[in-house]
Amino acid sequence: MVVQASLEGEAYFPSDDVMEQAFVRDWEALARFADEDLEGFWAREASELEWYQPWERVLDDSQAPFFKWFVGAKVNIVQNALDRHMTTWRKNKLALIWVGEKGDVRTYSYFELYREVCQFANLLRAMGVQKGDRVTIYMPRIPEIVTAMLACARIGAIHSVVYGGFSVDALQGRVDDSHSRVVITADGGWMNGKLVELKKTVDDAIKRCPSVETVIVIQHTGQEVWIEPGRDYWYHELKQLRITNGACTPQEMDSEDPLYILYTSGTTGTPKAILHTHGGYMVGVYSTLKYVFELNDMDRWWCTADPGWVTGHSYLVYGPLLLGATTFMYEGAPTYPYPDRWWSLVEKYGISVFYTAPTAIRGLMRFGESWPKRRDLSSLRLLGSVGEPINPEAWRWYHSVIGGQRCPIMDTWWQTETGCFMITPTPVVPLKPGSASRPFFGQRAEILDEHGNPVPDGEEGYMVLTRPWPAMMRTIYQDDERFIQQYWSKYPGKYMTGDSAKRDTDGYFWVIGRVDDVIKVSGYRLGTAEIESALVSHPAVAEAAAIGLPHDIKGQAIHVYCILRADYTPSQELMEELRQHVGMHLGPIAKPEKITFMDALPKTRSGKIMRRLLKARAQGLADGDISTLEE
Ligand code: PRX
Hints:
- It is a single chain.
- By secondary structure, this protein is of the alpha/beta class.
- It is built from 19 helices and 32 strands.
- Helix 5 crosses helix 6 (143-154), helix 10 packs across helix 11 (310-322) and helix 13 (358-365) packs across helix 15 (392-402).
- It starts with a strand and ends in a 13-residue tail after the last helix.
- The site of adenosine-5'-monophosphate-propyl ester has 23 residues, from helix 11, strand 22, strand 26 and strand 27.
């Protein structure tokens, strides 16, 4: 790629090679078509997939913000992700290549994956799991997390995947809120050479979850775990029962029927379950992955995300399978046992399209160029970034050291709520390091001030999305009111992203960060409320406030301010104890970077903690408006 100067600021233009191979060369023309005929664009995308029954209407916006897509259609996303390929040569193409942290390898052709999913689905059906039932999946990054998700979707059960790095409280809250009847887990997983005791966490968490009837346990690490008679079953033993063999007819789903819920942190309160559907989500994920990463039959796609987060759902599990692509999945840490583990896998498996998070890039940059330079990364043709703004320095390193100056970087902005990429380039779009470029086909974004007026280009404001899209969240599971209040009430008719951003004079969007109580630690989304409630569950803590402050590698790090109860005095030991306490309850990613003991917390007269003020003071910035601060 060449750097040119016909756009404002630093810009990288696609090379002739990239242009020549591009799937859509005329970005502007397609963008114009989709903008002028939103429903026509999405109908065309949807018609590339299989439907049991076609839609009567592409979009029903009569009950906005409860938008409906492909109204009246019948479909099953798994039928499209697997069965659709059974009648083509892709039946024998590799669907999944998996490498464990210990070096073990497993591969699945589309047929093999299909068969595994049918078996798992038959098993769930035999256990009485029905359409609409919730199933919690709490697993390491192993192939069975994929088959478990697809098995649920195949029979119309709603999966709720909880990230395997979360701990007891986080799991308990999510299982309980979803009223899951079944939990699928594993004995354990490997991360950074250490054993992660997943089953033990499940045992602790579901003590307080009366809805759980059955726990299915995958054997992975081989460690000894407790098997509760009548409740817990080894998956490999169930498979021997032969009830699982044979085909499994997918459940015909209404396009708008729920596919999954996924808990994510938002403004105040407990995490909320974002609900996605079979029809619209399928089309959104399929189409965005197709246009942005242009996966073809020569590609090997590696999305490093964990299936426990939305990136894993959309672009590790569903998207690539819908496209019939070959996905690579690795269980462990990028630096285990050495900082070139990822690059050695790119080399060995010939990864051609690689999608990761800025925090990982920054973390690996720290070890220097010599690690990636020892590896042959020439198979790569396209790179991607997601989860937080990528700082230009990391972008340039990724571009030159990993991408050899030849791989465009697709910086994709989106959210758990959006289901698929919303602001993103495609390979032919000129790139500016740090900007996710422009909205995807058919989309529009605006930057607004407090009163809903557009701010001039170059100025910061609230980023909103103004047109519906098929993969948009339908609601917060069991909480329509909160859905409206949180996303659609600040600016009626516009979707509030919760991000602040700027648009430049070329129409490129520059996301700055969250404007609510969400902290992005290493790209992971955590809520201040969750961290604070873990802290006050410790006997020493009377009150706590958590904020995110800039961190060189993590993007943001958690800083906590605590007021201790009368009998406790601040000490280094207590600080460490509190950090461990949060780690044990929520998960290691939620451990605060720093804890400061205070006598009082700044609050508004109505008693709300002013985190904004704590944040400003910690960074030595001006206080801003403090007229509501109590005396
Ligand atoms: O703040 C934005 C940031 O991540 C948030 C969404 O987090 P989550 O729901 O966990 O989904 C992450 C993966 C899709 C957004 O509100 N974010 C995500 N991608 C980008 C980003 N910020 C800047 N640039 C991005 N490419």
